[in-house]
Amino acid sequence: MTNETPVAPTRAASWQPDVLGEEYEQLTIPLGADPDGEGTVEATLVRYTAGARADATGTVLYVHGFTDYFFQKHLAEHMAAQGFRFYALDLRKCGRSRRPGQTAHYVSDLSLYDAELDEALRIVRAETGLPVLLMAHSTGGLVLPLWLDRLERSKGVAAQGITGLVLNSPWFDLQGPAYYRTIGTAVINGLGRVRAMARMPGAELSTYGDSLHRSVSGEWDYDLDWKPLTGFPVHFGWLRAIRQGHARLQRGLDVGVPALVLRSKVTKFMREYGPAADVADTVLDVRQIQRWSGCLGVRTNVVPIEGARHDVFLSSEPVRATAFEELDAWLAWLAEFTSKG
């Protein structure tokens, strides 16, 4: 980080049409000067307007992962059918929020995201007046628990209207051989301090992207400038922030609300696409997700999904139907649990 003092977020402008079509709108959240020295940063809040039901019982705020942005319209539609208003946040330098000259997804400290998360939560609560269910995928599944832990210690999560947390393949540890998490992490920390923008070699693979995008072997259509097949470069300064986040989570958090963790049943690390990539997590080690989920605190339910991809809601249709069934069952439990006070 630089010595530049962050500027407090200013109030967002008006809602505008979104790239997802007429049923979606976006709102720019100004965040002021970038503490990492890449100009002015902004975040983008997206809302599903067709899901603005008068009888809605809750609101979803969704956060994406690394090399990712919100494009999962079927997720918004499903949650709306379950009685939720739906919002999604593209974090600074990600997707809709990345500005010319900015390094995709780069932050030197995950707590910098607190600014847009706090403001997005404020907007969502002001617009709907409904309880908030948080959802996140992969790196977002690390960012949100860390934020919630800070929120719980400062203001109290329940006092902020948050009732639950759903994590889709959260990134809780560094995958790969054990030495990555010992000697490798020491190297990451050192390089992250002195050569923050240096790139980690060998991190850009297209296996997962090839399994998803319809131009290759998948069924999904999304912006390859915002979510390239090979992923964005991994910079040591960013990876250092991730490892610091991992360490904090592994010491134990208190997210303040019940959590559901969805993951694939198996991991298959592959350097090239093959059919096995369609039925496994090719990005994270699911055993690490299982191991560290207990560090969220409160009450956590972990559900392995047979045949799921890294993003379980981008799995093949029968598999994602199973994932939605598990989600809906947990939401029914959460509603009953919450009603008991």
UniProtKB/TrEMBL annotation:
Pfam families: Hydrolase_4 (PF12146)
Serine aminopeptidase S33 domain boundaries: 56-264
Superkingdom assignment: Bacteria
InterPro entries, alphabetized: AB_hydrolase_fold (IPR029058), Hydrolase_4 (IPR022742), MAG_DAG_Lipase (IPR051044)
Protein name per UniProt: Serine aminopeptidase S33 domain-containing protein
Organism: Nocardia wallacei
